[in-house]
Amino acid sequence: MEQWPDRWQGVSNVHCSGYVWIEPAPVIQMGLNISINCHSTVNCQMAKLYMMLNNTHIEDKLLTTINKTTVQLQLHDFRKPYSIVLCYAKCPSKAADMIVCGTQFFAGHPPDSPTNLTCVIYEHSDHLTCAWDAGKYTYISTNYILYLKSLQTGEEKAFPSNAAINISLSKLQGGKLYSIWVQAKNDLGTAHSDHLQVNLEDLVIPATPVITNVETTDSSAPRTILHWKKQTSMENVYCEERYKALADQTWHMKEWDINVTKGPNREYSLESNTEYEFQVRCRLILAKSYWSGWSAPFIYTTPEAAPSKILDVWRVMGPVYTNGSQEVMVLIKPLAPKDARGRILGYTVFHESRGEMVNLCNTSDTQCKVLVSPAMRTVHVTAYNSKGSSMPASITVTQEHSNFNDFLSPTNMQISHDDHRGVSVKWELPKYIGRSVLWFIVEWIFAAQHNQQHDFLWKKVPSQDTFTYIEGDLTEGIHMNISVYAVYQDGISKPCPGQLYLVDLDNDGDVFWGIGTGAIILSIVFLTLIFKKSLRKRYRFLFIPPPPLVSRICLSLRKP
Q1: Is 196 exposed, middle or buried (0-12, 13-18, 19+ CB in 10 A)?
Q2: Are residues 262 and 384 in the same domain?
Q3: What region holds the Fibronectin type-III domain (predicted)?
Q4: HSE on the CB side for 61, CA within 13 Å?
Q5: What is the mean pLDDT of residues 240-254?
Q6: Of 61, 165, 221, 534, whose CB count within 10 A is highest?
Q7: What is the pLDDT of residues 135-150, one digit of tens each?
Q8: Residue 410: cis peptide before it, omega within 30 degrees of 0
Q9: CATH code for the domain in which residue 488 is found
């Protein structure tokens, strides 16, 4: 009788009545074919042999009978890293099956040649620290040995390790010049790294510098200054700084050659009211020297500054009173954080009279209702924070009716639906235009329902664009009034208007259409189309020109 192999750890010792072996070996390269053999010495002439592989019973038809006491299991392209096999004998005269024997076996890879061998000495440390990339995972026990051979004395020393290793400098008495390499070895093979020729003095990594302060100058052109100190006592040190806005991913780098106790006071031109992260690191001025770690992050928020951008503003004209004055709702788009450069405290609406600023409204809201006189052509709007105000935005609020002929409206408005972007609004530049358009304003109003108040929405479109999207989900029964204005240096055009409806016809499709003010004839056309599905299905979008003296209108149908 043989005893269970001692190397089978975690399993109690058992007595074997035979033996089990693996061919070609108990450790194989992953993907090879193997044979598991069982030879029984059980005292039973009619014994039937069977196997359990990883707690799974192996069907009899998979076993090959070599003779009365030996069976074999062949496995192809075997890739399980660790396996246990047990062989049993079923004897008719015995109530319980008898264990013949068992074994464990492994599948893995030979080691790769270690790469990226690096060895460093941290300043103020008395150890050489080496690390390397072992390559692909082997799945089997693999041993690594770091070798150091003095190029001055020829002495060679070996240091076993399976990962990074720290070697006391007191063990390296063979001078400063060494050849270093790593050997990897397991049951499937041996590999070596490239040899690394080093001078121990060149392996020193300077101590990590420390950022002491960040400040910003209080001037018309603020500059942010970074203060830091190097912690190394070494000469010929090369350092670099990096910084980024905390919300960004991209770092900005600055490099320095320093030989002073205190690092340079680098000045940066940064965005106001923004959180930044700063770090510094150093290395020796050598082609292959190693960087220190980055210093601990220093988080700094730059001070506020006056808003840098002119506001986008618009107006909605209200009722005209008997004295000629008119109510105007001034609408304001909030500035983006990078343009606001601080917390916006409020907005000021004013006009100029004889060179003086006359305040009309101070508000923290993004709209303000003011009363303007017939002589008041333009109002101005500024945003302000703790550091100052933005440059004023100007908007025309009154102009003579005949004056509109000098400020031509956009034409040929087309309204359509985009499943991904929302409502598409397109138009054309005014023909025979004699002055430059500064920009366009697209205004849309969700028509009031059940005595609810109108909801005014708008956006500014650059003069080079003649289209935009009104984004958002549209629901059945929606009714929108859409207008496009051309804004000039000293006036605003009349609107190019349209209407948009979304109607569900018998759950068989949606219908979009736009109609101009007063286009009653086209409304009749549309109602006719509603009740004629065959006509409706023939068109995706249908644009109908307006009758004389009526603004350009658009009619569009969408197939179900």
Answers
A1: middle
A2: no
A3: 113-207, 210-305, 409-506
A4: 0
A5: 94
A6: 165
A7: 999 999 999 999 999 9
A8: no
A9: 2.60.40.10
Residues 415 and 381 in one domain: no
183 lies in the same domain as 219? no
Scan for tokens 């299905």, then name that residue. 537
- 143, part of any domain: yes
Q: What is the pLDDT of residues 401-418, one digit of tens each?
A: 666 677 889 999 998 877
What does the alpha-carbon distance between residue 208 and residue 236 come to, in Å, rounded to a whole number? 15
Q: How far apart are CA 241 and CA 208, in angstroms?
A: 12
Q: Which domain holds residue 78?
A: 2-108
User: Is 307 among the domain residues?
Assistant: no
Q: Same domain, yes or no, for 123 and 199?
A: yes
Q: How far apart are CA 307 and CA 345, in angstroms?
A: 11
222 located within any domain: yes
Cβ atoms of residues 20 and 103 within 8 Å: yes
d(CA 144, CA 157): 14
Together in a domain, 237 and 266: yes
Which range, of 86-90, 239-243, 256-260, averages the lowest pLDDT?
256-260
Q: What angle do CA 127, 132, 138 make, to 5 degrees?
A: 135
Residues 6+ apart with CB under 8 A from 531: none
Mean pLDDT confidence for 506-532: 45
Q: What is the mean pLDDT of the chain?
A: 84
